[in-house]
Design goal:
Helices cover about 30% and strands about 15% of the residues. By secondary structure, it is an alpha/beta fold. A 4-stranded parallel β-sheet has the order 2-3-1-4, covered by helices on one side. α2 links the parallel β2 and β3. It is globular, with a radius of gyration of 15 Å. The relative contact order is 0.28. The mean pLDDT is about 90.
């Protein structure tokens, strides 16, 4: 089984919130034990069989997918998604750039950086 949706967004744009909401929905199945598989950017050379293992427990879920806030930065990702899961729906999470940079700054301050 492969995903029928992939959420692509930037950090601090709501992808973690969306992931938590989807985890609680009984008709949605996300990648097993991980928010971001990083298949289409970092692990693509491992092949589709490697990627499918993340979704093998999805059974009869209506929606199957993953969320990544890093896919948006890799220009190779769109073509890889198109080749691997051509009918996949893409969800984009964006945020006002000014509000996003404020959020990143506050996040880093809380982390001591």
């Amino acid at each position: 089984m492969l995903p029928n949706f992939i959420c692509i967004g930037t950090g601090r744009a709501g992808t973690s919130w969306l992931y938590k909401v989807l985890l609680e929905h009984r008709e949605v199945c996300t990648a097993k034990n991980i928010k971001e598989t990083q298949f289409f950017n970092i692990h693509y050379e491992k092949g589709v069989g490697w990627y499918k293992k993340f979704f093998e427990d999805c059974g009869k879920a209506s929606a199957v997918g993953e969320i990544s806030n890093r896919y948006i930065f890799d220009p190779a990702v769109p073509e890889r998604i198109r080749k691997t899961v051509p009918d996949c729906k893409i969800i984009i999470c964006l945020r006002n750039p000014y509000e996003r940079i404020q959020s990143v700054y506050s996040f880093k301050l809380r982390g001591g950086r």
